[in-house]
Amino acid sequence: MIFVLCASLAAAHALAAPAAPAALKKVRLCVFDPLGTNGPAFANAREYMLEARKWGIDAELRAYPEERVVAEDLKAGQCDGAAITTLRGKQFNHFVGSLDAVGAVPDNAHLRMVLATLADPKMAPLMTSGKFEVVGIAPLGAAYVMVRDRAINSVETAAGRKVAVLEWDKSQTKMVQQMGAQPVASDITNFATKFNNGQVDIIAAPAVAFKPLEIYRGMGDKGAVYRFPLAMITAVLIIRPEAFPPGIGQKLREFVNSQLDKAFEYIAREERNIDAKYWMDLTPADKARYVTMMREARIVMMKDGDYDPRMMKLLKRVRCKINAGNAECALNDE
């Protein structure tokens, strides 16, 4: 979770700080939390940053209910570090930003292996792009398709329906158009409201958003959640390296990776908290068909420049390491 990233920022500074610092090192950390200063991400960040003072760090925290503004302030130098979704972080690092590609990471076991690989020192050169460095990646949970009417239970029945897509993520629009549905430009701040108000019929979101964004209101008595991950959603901590001690990036990445159990436990709890009546299972045949569709979509979007080929190759290598019998493992087109 994003608060895991914030906690890691403080802890990694502790590793780099001298035993008896002469003065506090001032940094400004900007945290995306839809609930602002009242949200869980900001509350946990504030708790950990109080501890950071013991290690010589004076971290000024800023809560942002709008993720777009966090990214803009990071680019403008108003933030020394920012905790945002990986999808939004793609503009700072295209390689890492391609991690949340549709269908590329099937489950938590795959994600754990991917995150461990990305935290390896050998991957460090790919973590820096321009003035920015990705110093932590944490899970936010699987993105599940959620519908206002459980009669929308296949690609065919989704045709013509309105689907909320992030207006700044072209890959989502392409995927929806491929399904024959209508993409409706949205943002993290309003996609749930559009779903609840009936402006869109379909959304994709992790379980951690279900209660805070009151998605159950859009479900009513007929809605459903497909028990089939569309993608594994993650968050990133991005810093301006010049504001931090040299070499802090690798320490952070390794520390974040050591703290992931807390995030996975939280996600599992939130998934269990979704009422059983909402979950809808797909047939094995439909699951296989959707896996093929998502793979084909990834290949197209990789060729179009939406996804980084190096990340797609890494994610495929992980999939084939876990399940060498996958048909895709004999192919060379991803």
SSE-based structural type: alpha/beta
Question: Which ranges are low-confidence, i.e. pLDDT below 50, for 5 or more consecutive residues?
Answer: 6-22
What is the N-to-C succession of helices and strands?
HEHEHEHHHHEEHEHEHEHEHHEHH
Q: CATH homologous superfamily of the largest domain, by name?
A: Bacterial extracellular solute-binding protein, family 7
Beta content comes to 15-25%
Q: Tell me the overall shape.
A: globular
The CATH class designation of the largest domain is Alpha Beta
The CATH topology annotation of the largest domain reads as D-Maltodextrin-Binding Protein, domain 2
Please give the largest β-sheet.
8 strands, mixed
> From the alpha-carbon coordinates, what is the Rg to the nearest angstrom?
20 Å
In helices, the fraction of residues equals 40-55%
Can you give the mean pLDDT? 88
Distance between the termini: 29 Å
InterPro entries: AdeT1/2, TRAP_DctP_sf
Keywords: Signal
Pfam families: AdeT1_2 (PF19582)
Protein name: RND transporter
Structure explained in plain terms:
The chain has helices at 2-16, 40-52, 67-75, 86-89, 94-97, 108-118, 124-127, 155-158, 170-179, 191-196, 216-219, 248-258, 260-272, 284-303, 309-322; strands at residues 25-32, 57-64, 81-85, 128-129, 132-147, 162-166, 182-186, 202-205, 224-239, 279-280. It is an alpha/beta fold and 334 residues long. The strands form 2 sheets. Strands 1, 2, 3, 4, 5, 8, 9 and 10 form an 8-stranded mixed beta sheet that branches. Helix 1 packs parallel to helix 2 and helix 1 (2-16) crosses helix 12 (248-258). It starts with a helix and ends in a 12-residue tail after the last helix. Residues 6-22 have low confidence and may be disordered.
